[in-house]
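Hi W., the manganese (II) ion complex you wanted:
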Amino acid sequence: MKIVVVIPTYNEAGSIGKVINDVCLNCPDAEILVVDDNSPDETYKSVEIFVKANPKIHLLLRKENRGRGYAGIDGFKKALSMDADFIVEMDGDGSHNPKYIANFLELANSSKCDAIIGSRYIDGGKDEERGFLRHFVSKSARFYLSFVLGVNIKDPTSGFRMFKRKVLEAFVDELRSNDPFIVTEILYYLKKNNCVIKEYPIEFLSRFAGKSKLKIQTLIKYLFKVLKLKLSEKK
Ligand code: GDD
Ligand code: MN
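Structure:
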């Protein structure tokens, strides 16, 4: 059984080394695939050091079509070509604790589900502190996304997930998102393919360094994108 952990990175030089080490410590059997978009801070150079020292660590250096979405799609395709049975995606900023990968795997094996979402908003989960307004916008947006998609998911924008191989094989060629909306687009295809989705509670940590590329405006853009996705559906 092979697990490939896909980590998209853009300017994560301050974090990626520790993230790779943490994944190795927590999941010694997993392979790691960092998908870097030629980050100006030269994140890939830190990754290359690991690649030389450890055959389980891989780098996919992308030089065109920058974007969290495109990087994710290319990462999934590469993970499938590496014969992964399970594919994990997580941030390269330290906010996703790799200790949960073992929990995801256990849940996937015991409950016969197709995809696990690391959830900040179910019992046992925890999010970073936010002001009232941000919290309100984010909560309403999440409710709306799940409602439009028709899935009962409390954390539809989480980027920490595990998929069974067959799930990604079913729709990876249909994914189109260039940006972080990819995580919601994937939920759409999971639902369309009648996949069983489970959430596992995670404690979200503050990123080790740098800053988030996701702004509240982006979340609001999602509201329109998800509607477009639903409306474009062939009946
Ligand atoms: N290769 C690549 N190219 N990676 C990128 C890009 C890009 O253009 N933009 C962001 N990333 C990487 C970041 O370096 C990080 O490892 C991960 O993608 C997520 O970006 P963050 O900037 O940390 O996003 P966030 O934590 O605020 O956003 C959360 O929600 C998003 C969806 O709403 C995360 O869970 C994301 O994974 C998720 O996509
Ligand atoms: Mn992040």
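The first helix runs from residue 16 to 26.

W.
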